[in-house]
Every structure is written in C-alpha cells, then in structure tokens.
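Example 3.2
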Amino acid sequence: MISAVAYGWKVTSNAHKNHETEGFKQRAEDVDQKAVNIHVANIICSSIQPLQNRAVLNCIEEKVGPDEKFPWAKFRIEKGFGALEKLLKDHAGRYATGDEVSMADAFLAPQIDAGIKRFNVDMVKFPNFNLENFLCI
C-alpha cells in the first residue's frame, strides 16, 4: 500500500510530465507559486505527516506517556498548520495556492482529514484552508 504522501508525490510528478491529468494541474506556470507548492509539501512531509505514523506515536507514548501522546501530537500538528496558514495567507484562493488544485492540495487534504478525525484539530483556526474545497478533493 502506498502512503498518502508518496501517492501525492507520484500524482504530482506524473501531472508535471503531462501538464494536466484529468483536470489536475500539478503546478502553476508562475515560479513563485511552484516554490510555494514545494514549500507546503515540505512542511507537511517534515512537520505534520510524520506525527500521524503509528511508530512515531508509539515513541511519543514511551517518552511522555499514553495520556499525552495525542495531545502532544495534536499540538505539533497545529503548529505545522499554523506555519502553513502564514505561508498560504498571500497565496490562497479557492484552493491552497490559487484557484486550481495543485500539489499543495494533494499533500494538504489528507492531513486536514486526519487532523480533524484522529486529533480533533479545530480547523477554524486556519481560515486559509478553505475546508469546503479540501473536503471535496
């Protein structure tokens, strides 16, 4: 089974080669927007997604205790979302980095879903994550 992050890289890499795949546009023509998309993917891969892995959660449990692993992970995930919120404030449109689905959306959507369902993250704190659109991706 391929992980959501690996699948996101696979989809966006293939879309980049084909420019468009079934309406999915991998990256905008604008160099700045490409950089923002890669920055979003990097923050997710390094600061948010790893905290949702069972092995990482088990390690946290060993270090801080079973009652603290989810609150600790939730705090760090919210910090990552906060960093993304600041990054996206000048780029968000209908989706994370504009009005078309991009690489940032492919990486962000599963993290929003897991943040809400597994960690009870209050997404109201992050208005630049247009939830209506993310939940449809």
